[in-house]
Design brief:
Radius of gyration: 22 Å
Helix content: over 70%
CATH architecture: Up-down Bundle
Strand content: under 5%
CATH class: Mainly Alpha
Order of helices and strands: HHHHHHHHH
CATH superfamily: PhyR, sigma-like (SL) domain
Distance between the termini: 78 Å
Number of domains: 1
Structural class: mainly alpha
């Protein structure tokens, strides 16, 4: 058999992609799959849709830059959610430490007025459920959102929140119990 060596030009054009291109494709696929879930988690933890959008961007930028450090000790989705959870907590702490500017308060009140009109349009049950979820403490809310809204497994939620599986189960049990109590008039 007479084999020719492949042309360097042809193999470079059809050969393997660079590491950077692979990371970009991986993060793009993860973004497509998980960005809505990270957004929901951030909104539920922070109560601010605009800040939650920033958290999604920060989460995936961090994931892109740290993808090579991912150790595959759990599902990559849990790793992404953990980054989003930590970014949300950091944002909450930063926001809490910064004194409110009167202009910012006025804009917030205007947004609240606009959201009150939107809230009137929603059904009473959905509004009550939102209030009940928001009334949960942060650890219970985070577990509830990841498990019951985003559909992560107990193991994935435990990995995302850096707690044990039994802690996730207990927090979920408490969250559901508190929600049942808050929503008893609807059940």
């Amino acid at each position: 058999m007479n084999r020719r060596a492949p042309s360097p030009v042809a193999s470079s054009m059809t050969g393997p992609t660079t590491m950077e291109q692979n990371r970009s494709r991986t993060i793009t696929a993860l973004f497509d799959e998980l960005s809505d879930g990270v957004y929901t988690l951030a909104v539920r933890l922070l109560g601010d849709r605009h800040l939650a959008e920033d958290i999604v961007q920060e989460t995936f930028l961090t994931a892109f830059h740290k993808l090579s450090s991912y150790r595959a000790e759990g599902p990559i989705a849990a790793w992404i959610y953990r980054i989003g959870y930590r970014k949300s907590i950091e944002a909450h702490r930063r926001r809490r430490d910064v004194p409110e500017d009167p202009a910012v308060i006025a804009r917030s009140e205007a947004r609240l007025a606009a959201s009150a009109e939107q809230e009137a349009i929603r059904s009473e049950l959905v509004a009550s459920l939102d209030r009940a979820i928001d009334g949960l403490t942060e650890p219970l809310r985070a577990v509830f959102v990841l498990r019951d809204i985003e559909g992560l497994s107990t193991s994935e939620a435990a990995t995302a929140l850096s707690v044990s599986e039994s802690a996730v189960k207990m927090r979920l049990l408490r969250a559901r119990k508190e929600l049942r109590t808050s929503l008893k008039e609807y059940l």
